[in-house]
Amino acid sequence: MKAWVVRQLGPPDSMVLEQVDEGAAPPDKVRIKIESAAINFPDALLVAGLYQVKPELPFVIGLEVAGTVLAAPAGASVKLGDRVLALLPVGGGLTGGGFGEIVDTAPATVVPIPDQMSFEDASALMLTYQTGYFGLHRRARLKAGEVLLVHAGAGGVGSAAIQLGKAAGARIVATAGSDAKVDLCRRLGADLAVNYKEGDFVQAVKDFTAGAGADVIYDPVGGDVYDRSTKCIAFEGRLVVVGFTSGRIPTAAVNHALVKNYSIVGLHWGLYNLKAPQLVADATQELFRLYREGVIKPHISDRRPLTEAREALATVAEGRSTGKVVILPGA
User: Fold this and answer.
1) In this structure, is residue 292 part of a structural domain?
2) Are residues 151 and 117 in the same domain?
């Protein structure tokens, strides 16, 4: 099979497209023919050696795939020919990543997908929508009628949060960094979208809420965005810390949280896979239900053949993409 191999750490163009001998399917793994693989920001961090987990070289990146089962061990919940998605562990070696034609992964990471779900949508569903589901429902306890402020609303994480917030009956304010991205946020369901490079989202939120502020703030950006968000959070608001794509980890002013009576809530979604996997399984089925009902659908902005995976990863790493970018090995 062909796969993009990381043999030395660096920018996306340090990956090399190689012919990899996949050998026989491991007896304890599910082998999947990859039809679609989604690109995520952590993929770029893995290639650069900046992710919190540093796999042993060489390895193949790609955390989300969808495709057809080629082989499965006895007792697995899937069988030959099943249409599935898989959320792959970091550092699975040369046949354990999604930027290739075939992947081998543990049965526990593989889930059958609904008949009406495309491979593209399936590959783009898990990381961003699971993160949004746990962030909004389990950590922030978002309620219908509340105001949800979503930062980086045109990105993969933000676009999922807008749709999930709308499905929960919230009123949505979204921020984005260009007029085109602002327009996308509106099309995804935002009631108000603000170009944070040209306008003050703090004042926009205050105007939208008649001074009350946002009940829940979903922040994958950190840095100055986090700092400014504390200026427009409501009484008993919840500020969900999702990530730090700005590059700066902010320092929480806990005296400010005390005076304004709001909560700062951390979200490490991957920890649920270790501590409470049944919650993840339940959330997956709920996401499938919302998808079947047409309430959520990944916004896929770009589809690339496997040969262009390196360039596609660069667009995500540099913040030039919207929603999700997928790789189609068969294209």
Assistant:
1) no
2) no
- Name residues whose C-beta falls within 8 Å of residue 282's C-beta, 6 or more positions apart in sequence: none
Strands (E), 242-286: 263-266
Smallest Cα–Cα separation from 263: which of 225, 294, 284, 236? 236
Indicate if 227 and 243 belong to the same structural domain: yes
User: Which amino acid belongs to residue 21?
Assistant: D
User: Do 70 and 78 meet the contact criterion of CB atoms below 8 Å apart?
Assistant: no
Enter the tokens of residue 94. Answer: 């040369």
As beta bridge partners, residue 47 has none
Report residue 114's pLDDT band, with 50, 70 and 90 as the boundaries: very high
- Cβ atoms 232, 213 nearer than 8 A: yes
Residue 153's pLDDT is 97
What number is the average pLDDT over the span 181-195?
97
Alpha carbons 274 and 208: distance in angstroms, whole number: 39
Burial of 246 (0-12, 13-18, 19+ CB in 10 A): middle
For 116, the domain range is 2-125+298-328
Alpha-carbon gap, residue 150 to 302, rounded angstroms: 22
| pLDDT value for 52 | 81
Dihedral of CA atoms 133, 136, 137, 142 in degrees, nearest 10, equals: -150
Residue 320 CB partners (closer than 8 Å, separation 6+)? none
* Structural domains in the chain (count): 2
Cα–Cα distances in angstroms (integers) from residue 2 to residues 236, 305, 309, 313, in the given order: 52, 12, 12, 17
Q: How many residues does the chain have?
A: 331
**Alpha carbon separation from 134 to 2, 211, 314 (Å, rounded):** 35, 28, 28
The pTM of the full predicted model, rounded to 2 decimals, is 0.93
